[in-house]
Amino acid sequence: MYAILVYDFGEKRVAKACKFCRQYLNWVQNSVFEGELTEGQLRSVEKGLRSIMHPSEDSVLIYLMREERWMDRRSLGVRKAEPGFMI
Amino acid sequence: MYAILVYDFGEKRVAKACKFCRQYLNWVQNSVFEGELTEGQLRSVEKGLRSIMHPSEDSVLIYLMREERWMDRRSLGVRKAEPGFMI
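Output (structure tokens, whole complex):
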């Protein structure tokens, strides 16, 4: 499935969360990652982020869809990364 | 169509961008908004954010899908807002 992940981590934990997410997904903007995940990888991502986060302070949103082609992507301003070029 | 909007604005412009986005979409997490938009509203959102942003510093990503039910939403940690309850 295709995932868009957006996190909001405290400053002390954000570098660790970023490094962790990059193992599974492509970084596309400050705190935004995208990519294909299997069910098992999704569980690993959730488990890993739970172990990094302070659950009363940090938050993560993950949007999932069966296929990437079900959504369009538009961007304004600085283009920090191009998911299609990073795979 | 259903939109997920994520921005990364400089500190001086973020409050203005947030206030603007709230006119069209529901705030769901720091710098993340969701909601239904018509084609005309999407154009207004893009135009408004372009007028607020510094294009060499700030960035906006908008993910669009025809129907909200095409995607699943998962969240970890602090739940800042519940899109379904805000409509």
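The radius of gyration of chain B is 13 Å.
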